[in-house]
Amino acid sequence: MKTAPECLSCFVKQAALAVQRVSTDPDRVFAVVQAASKVLPSLSRDLAPGENATLVLREVAATLGNHDLYSAERAHYNALALAACDALRETIARSPDPLEAAVRVAAVGNVLDLNIFEHVDVATIADEALAIPWAIHDFDAFKRDVSTARHILYLGDNAGEIAFDRLLVDALPSGSVTFAVKSGPVSNDALLEDARQVGLDRVARVIETGSDFFGAALSRCSPAFRAEFDAADMIVAKGMANFETLGDVDANLYFILKVKCDPVARAIGVRSGDLVLLSQRDRLHGGTLAVL
């Protein structure tokens, strides 16, 4: 997916949110965002928005001399999400189709994106998890592929959110899931330490993508990760950046996300705010393909 013109203003907003994680001094925030904005002319429209956003946030980190601005918040949201999971686990178990309910919880959890929102009310996620309607719901295909898959590669997104992902991993065939996290800090995206904090390493094999960019652009990932990607029977990809970087890849991919911006909404054919479970194969071969 190419970077849309309106993404540029979003990159500036993301830079400001990142600085404010460590400083409320308006002079410092102004200076750092100004420095980060100097990266904008060098960005390429041919890159995915998440790739360009990473380059802007790297300049923020370099200017501040802090490569992990979200460390404390990752741990904080992991703990909040874990606390919410006990009630959600019971709700999933009582639902008519526990797998569908677990997919829904994972999708709603995608709102835990501190690169877009300054704060997220985790209690609201728990309260609304089973009430929000789907805009795209390719669940029948998802359930069919889950029933036959031996190797499911699950691409995580944000810290905190991955506690809700664990509820979906619990609903998938035991021993089938390899869960991938980033290899270095980028915003509040999940790292190995986050996966361990929420116990994902106890229910799945946890690996790294080999990249510290948003999403999972295969050209930026390690050969080991690409081998895992190619070997998977089924790939579950959480969040907008994974859609942005893998939306042109012809594979048995399922995108699970809450759409949070107009460019991604246009590419999928939904509205910002919608909940999506999207089969890539159906999208590329069985339906209308939006222009990316």
What can you see in these coordinates?
- The protein is built from 13 helices and seven strands.
- The protein has 292 residues and is an alpha/beta fold.
- The chain folds into two domains: 58 residues; 216 residues, Uncharacterised protein PF01937, DUF89, domain 3 (Rossmann fold), CATH 3.40.50.10880.
- Strands 1-7-6-5-2-3-4 form a seven-stranded mixed β-sheet, sandwiched between helices.
- Strand 5, helix 11 and strand 6 form a beta-alpha-beta unit.
- The longest helix has 24 residues.
- The N and C termini lie close together (5 Å).
Gist of the model:
A seven-stranded mixed β-sheet has the order 1-7-6-5-2-3-4, with helices on both faces. It has two domains: 7-64; 71-286, Uncharacterised protein PF01937, DUF89, domain 3 (Rossmann fold). The chain has 13 helices and seven strands.
List the helices and strands and how they pair.
Elements: H1 7-19, H2 26-37, H3 49-64, H4 71-94, H5 98-108, H6 122-128, E1 134-137, H7 139-148, E2 152-155, H8 161-171, E3 177-181, H9 192-197, E4 205-208, H10 223-231, E5 234-238, H11 240-246, E6 253-258, H12 262-268, E7 275-279, H13 280-286
Parallel strand pairs: 1-7, 2-3, 2-5, 3-4, 5-6
Antiparallel strand pairs: 6-7
